[in-house]
Amino acid sequence: IFKELNLLNKKLLKTKEKILKNTQKNKKQSDKISLKNTQLASVISAISHELKNPLSVIDLSLEMLKDENLKDEKLKNELLEKISRQSLKLNALTHKLNFVFNLNHEALQMQEFDLFTLCEKIVKNPGFERVILRGKSTRVKADEFLIEQVIINLLSNALKYSQKEVILIAQDQKISVLDFGKGIEKNQLKFITKKFYKIDTKSNNSFGLGLFLVKKILSIHKSYLEISSTVSQGSKFSFKLH
């Protein structure tokens, strides 16, 4: 009898251990789901906020156009132009969100190319007249299109916050973008690569996705963004490829 009781006790202990393991596993899965739901709610809230302004402008403009007493043709054209601009903004936001959420390792099209040559091509684009390119030929293996988006985002940000020239350096498989703008407060540095975060909350032309997109692209290239900044002097954004 004692032998049977001992065996039964061992079986019960094993069953207890198995139940505990399953409980812990279920708790971990539940915590993961809870975290994902929280993150999803945060993203939905941020997207709703981004959509609110252009939709409000479109709604108000349409209401004004419905007014039968509105005879001013110039004002009508201005309202139609507003609707057109905000529609383009909504399309751009949709495209950017789709691009961000579908980025993954499998989507990479790795190839060898010259980083300096890519920068030469970028700075010839309209809007980059204040960019001064420095460096030398340096070859890397990466997704050229995505790295181009990274550099364009960094330059666009630098130009937005600086009235002076912006310096772009490409050498030794590394990119650095230096601006001489107002700089970034230390307490903001850890947030600027987060989704929908804006340094300038007054700006309606930004979705707060630029640096988040940069961070995500670099992450799938097994790289990261280095940021240093001094208030009233400027900022430096750098990353290295292989």
UniProtKB/TrEMBL annotation:
Gene3D superfamilies membership: 1.10.287.130, Histidine kinase-like ATPase, C-terminal domain
Domain Histidine kinase: 46-242
Keyword set includes Transferase: yes
Listed PROSITE patterns: HIS_KIN
SMART domains assigned to the protein according to its UniProt record, in alphabetical order: HATPase_c, HisKA
Coiled coil residues, start to end: 62-96
TM annotation in the entry: none
E.C. designation(s): 2.7.13.3
Keywords linked to the UniProt accession: Coiled coil, Kinase, Phosphoprotein, Transferase, Two-component regulatory system
GO cellular component: plasma membrane
GO annotation, biological process: cellular response to phosphate starvation
Reactions that this protein is recorded to catalyse: ATP + protein L-histidine = ADP + protein N-phospho-L-histidine
Source superkingdom: Bacteria
GO molecular function: phosphoprotein phosphatase activity; phosphorelay sensor kinase activity
Kinase keyword on record: yes
Official protein name in the record: histidine kinase
